[in-house]
Specification:
Order of helices and strands: EEEEEHEEEEEEEEHHHHHHHHHHHH
Strand content: 15-25%
Low-confidence stretches: 1-18
Structural class: alpha+beta
């Protein structure tokens, strides 16, 4: 990285998920302090390294929607990363103003310093809205590995200081800059993401082992948020190609063992006649996985569409992964049923799931003509409360699509 690209954003306040005691999950459970997410004396910070090119669009969503960012533990040369710093509960002074600054340090694998920015103004001025809303710091760092940058572990350290509260929250994380293997099929996470997202349009099961290996080697499977869409996708491909399972399992058995969990869940939720037998044989062979997935011995395989939606927003991710593999309507209809949960009072879990459903349906209806068709088609068959929300989804998706088309048309040839 030849230079620090520091972008100062304005108006970056948004609701996500936090409470007076600190950070909570999308399911409303408290999150213990970690190196990259912690709270000290009521003031909290979180450091996210994402490869998402559309991170800003994901952030600029309705307050009740909890955007989900992919995180990266590995990145290849030429790929882009964005380093985001979030904060909660800044203290206001007598004038009702906040004053948050941060130091940003990025260290190369050889120990030399790539970035050393001090006392950057991250948030200042009148505080609007609930102080416990999650807010995005105005300091955003862009990174791209360029020729001459050393491969290996890059360390990121951010000290987030609430001057009014006189509290500093130190945050740190890291990522690996790695070489692209000669001859590899997927050249970047964007390349892989496009293949997976539109797989249903042109199924290519022969590439499945390569895809799972890429997810493992690129670090995607180190991200807990990637597990649900990944196993939902695998469940769909496994279900549609049972004759290839034997060969695939043998080929994937050499993966980094912690990453084999996505294969276990993909087999389980493929819901094939021999799913249970295959999963149990797999777990007996990998005792560490047996400890992790021992709960499967108490149940029976089921399709992704049967996972109780109340278990959390991750179920929506699994359903979307399943749609990408199959193009089927059933997982999308399942997501539609949670739309009325947006209006539920006193149940943060359902509220967040409903908000995530609305955002994801709108985003995917804009991106996939098939999903737009599903939404339009189901207005007449869904209950009144679901149909009303679907109309909103369709209107918003079409507005976004029209806006994008206008921007493209305005670009010089």
């Amino acid at each position: 990285m030849k230079r620090l690209l520091l972008i100062l954003l304005l108006g970056c306040s948004q609701s996500l998920f936090a409470e007076s005691g600190g950070w909570i999950t999308r399911d409303g459970k408290p999150v213990p302090n970690t190196d990259s997410m912690k709270s000290i004396d009521g003031f909290g910070g979180s450091l996210v390294v994402t490869p998402d090119p559309d991170w800003e669009a994901k952030w600029n969503t309705p307050p009740e929607t909890a955007p989900s960012f992919r995180t990266a533990s590995k990145v290849r040369y030429g790929e882009n990363l964005t380093i985001l710093t979030f904060y909660i509960n800044p203290k206001v002074n007598e004038a009702g103003e906040i004053d948050v600054v941060c130091d940003i340090k990025i260290t190369r694998p050889d120990g030399s310093q790539s970035v050393g920015a001090k006392e950057i103004e991250c948030a200042k001025g009148k505080l609007e809205g609930d102080p416990h809303n999650v807010r995005l710091s105005s300091a955003v760092v862009k990174f791209v590995g360029e020729e001459g940058d050393p491969s290996g572990t890059w360390k990121i350290e951010v000290s987030l200081a609430d001057r009014n509260r006189k509290v500093v929250v130190p945050l740190k994380t890291k990522f690996e800059l790695v070489e692209t293997k000669p001859g590899t099929g997927f050249q970047s996470q964007d390349d892989f993401s496009k293949w997976m997202t539109f797989y249903y349009q042109k199924p290519d099961p022969a590439r499945l082992p390569e895809a799972v290996e890429y997810m493992s080697e690129s670090g995607l499977l180190d991200n807990e948020n990637a597990l649900a869409p990944s196993f939902g996708f695998l469940a769909g491909v496994f279900h549609d190609n049972p004759q290839q399972l034997e060969g695939w399992i043998k080929q994937l058995d050499s993966l980094n063992e912690p990453h084999l969990g996505v294969v276990v869940l993909g087999l389980w939720y493929a819901n094939l006649p021999d799913s249970q037998k295959r999963v149990y044989a797999f777990l007996e062979k990998h005792q560490n996985l047996k400890q992790r997935f021992g709960y499967l011995y108490k149940g029976s395989p089921m399709p992704v569409e049967k996972i109780p939606l109340e278990q959390g927003a991750w179920v929506l991710d699994a359903l979307w992964g399943n749609f990408m593999a199959t193009g089927n309507k059933t997982p999308v209809q399942r997501i539609m049923t949670t739309l009325p949960w947006i209006d539920v009072k006193g149940d943060i879990n359902r509220l967040l799931i409903g908000g995530a459903a609305r955002w994801s349906l709108t985003s995917n209806a804009e991106q996939h003509q098939r999903i737009m068709h599903f939404c339009e088609e189901d207005i007449s068959t869904q209950s009144k409360d679901v149909a009303a929300k679907l109309r909103e989804v369709i209107v918003n998706a079409k507005k976004e699509l029209e806006s994008k088309n206008k921007k493209k048309a305005a670009q010089p040839i």
